[in-house]
Amino acid sequence: MPRRPLVSDRLPAPLAPYSTAVLGSAEMWLSGQLGLVPGTAELAGPTATDQLTQIFANLDDILAEAGKDHGDVLRVTLYLADMGDFDAVNGVYAEYFAAPYPARTAIAVAALPMDARIEADVVVG
Q: Which PANTHER family match (predicted)?
């Protein structure tokens, strides 16, 4: 099956030349997601937890558009502008996902687009 971009009015528009999510034969690979409020191109709030909460709300819409749910998420990579946010982010993450959790990596980065505090990319099976 050729790759098919997932497009929906419920999702934030990409800020650059990329697809929000791409469906393949068995997996869906999401581009890095910022905590953007759909229709505004603005971050949901100033904190990593505000932004991760919005990322997960947007992920809910992406999963629904693809006929998937939380249980289909295989891997999450989190990019943190400040590793000091790690514990707070884990709290939001644990509320969103249930055990057994997806595989996950958290990486500290020097900066993110729009001065975001967190970005996530996700692989869905």
A: 2-IMINOBUTANOATE/2-IMINOPROPANOATE DEAMINASE RIDA, 2-IMINOBUTANOATE_2-IMINOPROPANOATE DEAMINASE
Structure tokens at 69: 């749910």
Q: Which pLDDT tens digit goes with each residue over 14-38?
A: 776 667 777 767 789 899 999 999 9
82-118: b (≥16 Cβ within 10 Å) or e: eeebeeebeebbeebbeeeebeeebeeeeebeeebbb
Q: pLDDT at position 1, please? A: 52
Please provide the DSSP assignment of 32-99 as one string.
Answer: PB--EETTTTEES-SSHHHHHHHHHHHHHHHHHHTT--GGGEEEEEEEES-GGGHHHHHHHHHHH--S
Domains within the chain, CATH numbers bracketed = 4-124 (3.30.1330.40)
Query: How many whole angstroms separate alpha carbon 13 and alpha carbon 102?
Result: 26
φ and ψ at residue 119, rounded to 5 degrees: -140, 145
